[in-house]
Amino acid sequence: MRIKQTIVTRGVENYTINESLAGSRSPKAGDVGLFRVIEVDRHSSLQCVDKRSHSIFDGDYILAAFGNRYATSQYEGYVPEQPLDVYHIIGAGGVIGIVRTKNASLEDYEPTTVELIGYCCEPDGSVINTLFRNQKRLSFTGDVPNQAKIILSIGSTMDSGKTTTAAHVARGLKTTGKQVAFIKLTGTVYTKDIDYVADCGADVAMDFSNIGFPSTYLVDKETILDIYQTLLNKIGEHKPDYIVMEIADGLFQRETSFLLSDPRFMNTIHNTVFSCGDSLSVQAGLQVLNEWNIQPCMVSGRFTMSPLLITEVQDRMSVPVHTIDQIMTGELNAIFEQKIHSPVA
């Protein structure tokens, strides 16, 4: 039997399959199982451990893990509270759950359905769970390796340009010959973002899935801070001068909101770049950030594709506006050097 092992289960080897638990055990986020594809629809391919997207077909067997998902342009999905006959693929990295809502753009698509054949178990019979598996969990201290300057990339909402901005910040910083690392702290597992930033020049790129998390949605704040510290420790091996970090989704998303409003987290940040999709979201987003005493050193994102939208922002706000083409040249690196403390006026 050929099994397509998804990226979320990387590092899972030498397991046994316990079929008897499939109908009796309530799944938990991170639990790994062997699933059979019932009907392919929305997700017709999955990212596997070789990082390639593999097409899937009815009847295929996949190794995947349960998890939650928050994606305003995709799915809202959850780990069910009890065993079910049918589950949904809710993330292309191999995340399994049950869809609760979806974006209207997906109205012609139904989630791809799977059935759980059995849980993957350790030699002692315990169900394999990916969370911090074979990892040393570090408690959050706020210590930043190598006294690196952390540049935080945040956005008004999903698809506002956060990753693209972060990637080009990394590329610009590399023009100085410095060591640059990238962390994607929150989101749902799929390595496209960290791979893109690495392609743009980052010396090392990691995310929460390197610590075994299918997603960070609904994870408590202290655990996310521990993920952060654990990733900082891993990144520290590369002695970075800069760490560019992205938080997924928009300002009002649960994890984004509680991180940005937590002084312990923000005290680790040297500078912030804010990405937006349109001019009005720039103004509204800056007002929200002002309430949290966060002043971005610049705004960028999808709206900078339009000279007209750039003009609208520049005519009404004093915060600097820069395109990704400007950022990637390195001409703006001096802006990232100076730490901005004062809130937006």
The spatial strand order of the largest sheet comes to 14-13-15-12-16-17
Low-confidence stretches: none
* CATH-level-4 superfamily name of the largest domain: P-loop containing nucleotide triphosphate hydrolases
Radius of gyration: 21 Å
CATH architecture of the largest domain: 3-Layer(aba) Sandwich
- Helix content range: 10-25%
Main beta sheet: strand number and arrangement? 6 strands, parallel
Q: Strand-and-helix sequence, N→C?
A: EEEEEEEEEEEEHEHEHEHHEHEHHH
Write the layout of secondary structure elements.
Layout: E1 3-5, E2 16-18, E3 32-39, E4 45-47, E5 53-55, E6 61-66, E7 69-70, E8 75-78, E9 87-91, E10 95-102, E11 113-121, E12 149-155, H1 162-174, E13 180-184, H2 192-199, E14 204-207, H3 221-236, E15 242-246, H4 254-260, H5 263-266, E16 271-275, H6 279-291, E17 298-300, H7 307-316, H8 324-328, H9 333-337
Parallel strand pairs: 1-6, 6-10, 12-15, 12-16, 13-14, 13-15, 16-17
Antiparallel strand pairs: 2-11, 3-6, 3-11, 4-5, 7-8, 8-10, 9-10, 9-11
